[in-house]
Every structure is written in C-alpha cells, then in structure tokens.
C-alpha cells in the first residue's frame, strides 16, 4: 500500500505478537490480536506460524494475504468484524481448520474462492453480516459442517446442496430476502370478537339508539324461548376439536 494512502493501523512487532500467545485449557496455543487496530496482516506472525488458533477479530483488515497458507496447524481462525472483501485461494490449504468466523465483513460472492470448499474438516462457518447475494452450490461439499451462519446478507435462495448437508444442525438465514421466509398475510377473521363492553343507562341514549338496542333485546328473548326439545338437540361435530384460539391456551388451562 503506497505511503500515506489508506489506513495504516497499529504496527505489531514480533515481541507484541509473542506476548499475545495464550495456552488454552485444551493445550492449544491461541494468538490473540483482537481489537488491536491492525489494518495490514503483520508479516512477523510468520514466526508464530505453528499456532493452532488465531484471533484477529475487531480490527481494520481489508485483505488476508496468501502467506496464510504457512499456518498449516491452524484449527481455529476468527476474522469477524473487519473490512475483508475477499479471501485468498490459499485459505483452502488449511486442511486442519474446523472453525472459521468471517462475520461482519464486506465479503461478496466473488470474494469467496472456490478453494474454500477444500476445507473438508470445517465444522463451523460464519458468513453472516456480509454482502453476499448468492451462495456457491459447492459449499455443499463441506460434509462436516455442523453450523452455518448466513444471516444479514442479500440472499434470495439457499442451494439445496447446502440445505442437505448431512451433519448440518444449525443454519441461520435470518434477515435475508428469502421468499420462503417472507411474512405471510394474516388470514382475515370473519368472526368479529368483542374487545370491549361498555354499559350505559337508558337516559344516556338517543331515541334511535335506544330503539335499536330494545329491538335486539327482543330478538334475543325470542331465541331464548325457542328452546329445542330432546330430539332436536343440535349436534356440533365440528367442535369436538378445540379451535385455534383454544389450542393456543390449552397449556394455560392445564396449569390452572
């Protein structure tokens, strides 16, 4: 990058990098360089290429260089919340990688290299919060995937090859313009339910309203007098199963 152009970011020395290595409970060594203001992948990290995990999240990285292929022991790589718009083809050489977080970057469909499908041991892949309009069908070759994050993109279709991944347990596609997840119009309820009941005295009603109320009351009394006999007892077979409203409240009834 020419001097004076683009973000320079914080310079990471080898000493700083070595002091940022942590040994986890499982014995893996993690290089923790999150929130360090890094804009360019530090070449000094090549001296620590034998680490198993790298956390470069929450920085200002735009590119991941092809020297990433030197980190052949990597099993866990967190690059979320940067400004990465494309990945190098060399990322496909990281055959031991099981976790890859690329959430909250600027990745486009063109920025996903075909070599990404060579990560045969990958179990978690997070591509949420990017600029993806389509997902390569070749991602369906990642047979070990258990978790796949595709939320907050511009996807209109999810390839069948991805949906049918044999070990996939969690697929997050929220907040994408997918037709299959579009909100359906609520059906019109032809039965008008009374939400509120107001009681008033006769003296507060005008003549026309009073006449209407009295007429409806008389009709109600007529219905009460028309009590059906034993042989005329109505059968409501359609009500043997609770309606939708009742089903929604069954658990509440049981508790009471």
From TrEMBL:
Residues 234-248 have a biased composition (Polar residues). One of its GO terms (cellular component) is cytoplasm. Keywords: Leucine-rich repeat, Repeat. Pfam families: LRR_8. Coiled coil: none annotated. Residues 223-256 are annotated as: Disordered. SMART domains: LRR_TYP (SM00369). PROSITE patterns: LRR. This is LRC18 protein. It comes from Chloropsis cyanopogon. The gene is Lrrc18.
